[in-house]
Amino acid sequence: MALMHVDFFSDVLGMCMDMDVIIPQKTRGQIGMEGTVGDGRYKTMYLLHGMSDDQTIWQRRTSIERYVSKLGIAVVMPTTHLAFYTDTAYGLKYWTFISQELPRICREFFPRMSHKREDTLAAGLSMGGYGAWKLGLGAGETFGAAASLSGALDIGADHHRQKGGSKEVLFRGIFGDLEQLKGSDNDLFALADRLVAAKRALPRLYAWCGTEDFLYGDNRKAWDYVRKLGFDLTWEESEGDHQWKYWDEKIQDVLRWWLGIQGELG
After folding, report:
1. Residue 9 pLDDT > 80, yes or no?
2. E-assigned strands of 139-224?
């Protein structure tokens, strides 16, 4: 694999941004790892970070490069700051950036990335799990599948809107009036409803959350909701809380689910 650190300018955000990108490379001489490149264009996974992190975190906390080495896919890991993948109330359009501008830029920089929605996955953890499902439900023309690990899937839940809570000022800066959050373009439940009502192609969805995670109840609510709407949902739960030893394991399950493969990765 080739790992590229890309500094580029976003016209949407009006600032320089960063992403790390894994690109397939055919190799045989690396110790303990072999790289594969398939024919045609690369399937691409956009791998999103959580609230406290940046574009480097998946490399620092997991073996993602090793896991994809024989799969012949590209992995885009962008920084999106602490904006919940949203066109924020304070004016920066992170949703437009992640859903429209970034895929266009990536396909310009890396012409072998596939343009097909069925070849494009959004995945992430915590805040990034919310962002991944938001891309699947709100930008399905680009992202044909979305995977959430311990995601903040019910962004309209009372604990997110609690007055005087530690995140109230932050969330108001991102989402605006928190009392108007439910039913808005930032509410995954509302996005799912609209997608079904419009009779548009539905994304494949995957989710995992640990049963001891503080977001477990929100996850169960979201899983039940989209399943009843008829989405193709694969969901899993197991013992665990909100930490990397689980996400390192489960991102491998995400890749197996998306690509329809079995066995050990990397």
Report:
1. yes
2. 145-149, 204-210
Q: How many CA atoms lie within 13 A of 111 on its CB side?
A: 0
CA end-to-end distance (rounded Å), the chain: 11
The yes-or-no verdict on residue 13 having pLDDT over 90 is yes
Residues in Cβ contact with 222 at an 8 Å cutoff, skipping those fewer than 6 apart: 133, 151, 153, 154, 188, 189, 207
Q: Are 33 and 233 in contact (CB under 8 A)?
A: no
Listed residue (98, 106, 92) closest to 23, CA to CA: 106
Strand partners, 209: 237
Q: What kind and span of H or E run contains 224?
A: helix 216-229
Helix axes of 188-197 and 216-229: crossing angle, nearest 10 degrees:
10
Q: Which two tokens stand for residue 243?
A: 């930490």
Q: Which amino acid appears at position 139 of this protein? A: A
- Residue 82 pLDDT > 90: yes
Q: How many CB atoms sit inside 10 A of residue 80's CB? A: 25
Helix or strand run (H / E) with residue 131 = helix 127-138
Q: Which of 112, 111, 24, 125 is nearest to 65 (CA)?
A: 24
Q: How far apart are CA 75 and CA 61, in angstroms?
A: 15
Residue 97 DSSP class: I
- pTM, 2 dp: 0.96
Structure-block tokens of residue 13 = 């955000």
CA 182 vs. chain centroid, Å, equals: 21
Among residues 193, 157, 194, the alpha carbon closest in space to that of 178 is found at 157
Q: Three-state SS for 259?
A: helix
Going by DSSP bridges, is the β-strand pair 204-210/145-149 parallel, antiparallel, or unpaired? Answer: parallel
Burial of residue 11 (number of CB atoms within 10 Å: 0-12, 13-18, 19+): exposed
